[in-house]
Amino acid sequence: MTIEYLPLQSGDKMPLIGFGCWKVDPKDAPETIYNAIKVGYRLIDSASNYKNEEAIGKGINMAIKDGLVKREELFVTTKLWSTYHKKEHVREALEKQLEQLGLDYVDMFLVHFPLPLKHVPIDVKYPPGWYQPGEDVITLDRAPMHECWAAMEQLVEAGLTRNIGVSNFNVQLLMDMLTYAKIKPALLQVELHPYLQQEHLVRWVQQQGIAVTAYSSFGPTSFIATGSKRAKGVEPLFENPTIKDIAAKYNRNPSEVCLRWSLERNVAVVPKSLNVDRMKMNLSALDWKMDEEDVQAINQLDMGLRFNDPMVNAQKLPIFY
Ligand SMILES: NC(=O)c1ccc[n+]([C@@H]2O[C@H](COP(=O)([O-])OP(=O)(O)OC[C@H]3O[C@@H](n4cnc5c(N)ncnc54)[C@H](OP(=O)(O)O)[C@@H]3O)[C@@H](O)[C@H]2O)c1
Predict the structure, then answer these.
(1) CA proximity to 43, closest of 67, 17, 6
(2) How far is CA 177 from CA 108, 170, 215, 270, 285, in A?
(3) Residues with Cβ within 6 A of ligand 1?
(4) Is 50 a catalytic residue?
(5) Which of 62, 87, 96, 247 shows the greatest Cβ crowding within 10 Å of its Cβ?
(6) Ligand 1 centroid – CA 142 distance (Å)
(7) Burial level of 116, CB count in 10 A (0-12/13-18/19+)?
(8) What is the pTM of this model?
(9) How far is the CA of 201 from the centre of ligand 1 (A)?
(10) Using one digit for the tens of pLDDT, what is the confidence trace for 86-143?
(11) Could you count the other beta carbons within 10 Å of the beta carbon of residue 70?
């Protein structure tokens, strides 16, 4: 298996398949990340809000120490949490994350959500999550994105991250951002799977020279564990007859069909699995191709069905409406 890459504006190359770290328990994370690197993953997709970065960093550093990989062969992505959008908090957030990861720099730093939450000082609660300590309601902050982005740009100049990008942004926000960005976002990471295809968003963003990564490529699968009613109420992607028929045609698993469909759109993926065999299976999406007629058949499955939606989750925030 050879890793394939997407070119970024900086000249860096981002692996087309990475390993997703959301819901990896900190107690499992060092071994899981070590195994992911051992089986061939070269991109690790982390975030402060996954509440496991210290343990993720342990896994990365164990793999480097054991000679499985050199730091420069790895592509580490992490994300700025929403309580650090004010320009004076952006750098301290990444510095804290680097300390937790045990790294000098990351390869990609993404604004996690276009959603400024009231700041929580690191020494009060870290990572802070969605709410102010002791509260269970969302408190927004007056932190304009153009100031947040200027602070992100300074992190590139300071050598703390090689690239910067955004996550969960839409076309309107990106159009505005392109009017002031000195460094254009290198990457957009959004929820994408056969039930939520966001065709216009993906095409427009790619036309701007911005790379796209799909998260939650297996659709509802990841959200069953969060108790999502939407995820429980829909046919599992792996049971969908179109996905199953295409899997049978190529003697592959339905999960591989979901990943390969993204790669056929030139969209990177970051599947998460705690299981080494499934980790390997997910990487093997690089090994084959899907006929255009099968891509077209999957394109018919779009339902505009979003699972990572802060409106239907506890936060009740309509950021995608
Ligand atoms: N930017 C954002 O806001 C955002 C939001 C969500 C996710 N993400 C990123 O995207 C990554 C991936 O998304 P995700 O974690 O939501 O979900 P995912 O990768 O779509 O799905 C993970 C689920 O699928 C199972 N699975 C993995 N490989 C499988 C296979 N080959 N066959 C059958 N089941 C399989 C996993 O179980 P096992 O572990 O038991 O294999 C787990 O339950 C995250 O980890 C995170 O890094 C980013």
Answers:
(1) 17
(2) 18, 11, 22, 25, 33
(3) 20-23, 45, 112, 167-168, 189, 215-218, 221-222, 255, 270-275, 278, 281-282, 308
(4) yes
(5) 247
(6) 33
(7) buried
(8) 0.98
(9) 22
(10) 999 999 999 999 999 999 999 999 999 999 999 999 999 999 999 999 998 889 999 9
(11) 9
